[in-house]
Amino acid sequence: MHLLYQPMNTIQATTYPVHFSDKAYQELNLYLKENTYSSIFILVDDNTFECCYPKFIQRLETDLKIELIQIDPGEIHKNLDTCLGVWNVMTELGADRKSLLITLGGGVITDLGGFVASTFKRGIDFINIPTTLLSMVDASVGGKTGVDLGVLKNQIGVFANPQMVIVDPEYLHTLDPREIRSGTAEIIKYGMTHDIRLFNQIKDNTELNIVDLIHRSVEIKNEVVTEDPKEKGLRKVLNWGHTIGHAVESYFLDAEHKENLTHGEAIAIGMVCEAYLSSRILNFPEEKIAEIKNAIVNIYGKIEILPEDINPIMALLIHDKKNEAGIVKFVLLNDYEDFELSCEASEELIRESINFYIN
């Protein structure tokens, strides 16, 4: 996939802007001039410290004291222990209620950093600078912050909006192709639920205008979140592929004999399974299930799930935070761009759907 760029207009969310490319740094520096912060804390992991921080710090214009906090990379560190470490370091370095936290990293950094900021001294301001495709199109926008509880995804968190989001596609050059593919799964999700052109472009093209796809994805997410910020209704659509996908991701994270999956790889499997459920429950067209499965396998390869993996995956589904009264809830499709929220499926059908991916 080649990364082609063009300038993109700012997207205005309810309480904050999402700025793109070079203009974003101008807006950030102007914002720092116009607001009276006491200090700036920048949260990075080992990877973004090495690959992204040098570029970012050159673009930052401020006389404020800057402190850098570095954590270990990876979903395995997205937990309360890491938060405790960050809170302690911030306290030792003199952070106060007028400090600003800038998150520079992927979904783990933006989710965890937003949670750290929104709970430190009952909440300090934060700015998200996503550096992966996944965090650009999903994690950094929408006001969800949080961490995992053991292997259970995003069980602890709060809704809190950043002051702004800066999307600079130049950071994508620091990623390996697997991470680009991981973020692509969230764009495919927006395509199937809201704008099928996104899915078609990814499915049919090797040369993509990736910035165009990012901008459209953020637009879609922002429209959904603006209408339903706390996930009482419409925002549930953003969970397409995630109910089974999160259970698969958690299982691979916890099973010692399995290599961890990226978030996007797991969500891609979830979309195949949930397309199957859509066909059995809502008559989603058979030829489109085949199209989805073929596209996913072409992009992500066939990930080995064995029959004996199904029981532990089913056990993890029970803990999905979208469940109501112990019943697993799904977003399912009548057709592309035509979805139903809070659908129920029998255990037998869910097992069938995983077998459909396996076979």
From TrEMBL:
Its cofactor is NAD(+); Co(2+); Zn(2+). Residues 183-323 form the 3-dehydroquinate synthase C-terminal domain. GO terms for molecular function: 3-dehydroquinate synthase activity; metal ion binding; nucleotide binding. GO terms for cellular component: cytoplasm. GO terms for biological process: aromatic amino acid family biosynthetic process; chorismate biosynthetic process. It comes from the Bacteria. It holds the Pfam family DHQ_synthase. Gene3D superfamilies: 3.40.50.1970, Dehydroquinate synthase-like - alpha domain. Coiled coil: none annotated. It is an enzyme of class 4 (lyase). Its EC number is 4.2.3.4. Keywords: Cobalt, Lyase, Metal-binding, NAD, Nucleotide-binding, Zinc. Residues 69-181 form the 3-dehydroquinate synthase N-terminal domain. InterPro entries: Dehydroquinate_synthase, DHQ_synth_AroB, DHQ_synth_fam, DHQS/DOIS_N, DHQS_C. The keyword Nucleotide-binding applies. Catalyzes the conversion of 3-deoxy-D-arabino-heptulosonate 7-phosphate (DAHP) to dehydroquinate (DHQ). PANTHER family: 3-DEHYDROQUINATE SYNTHASE. This is 3-dehydroquinate synthase. It comes from Tenacibaculum jejuense.
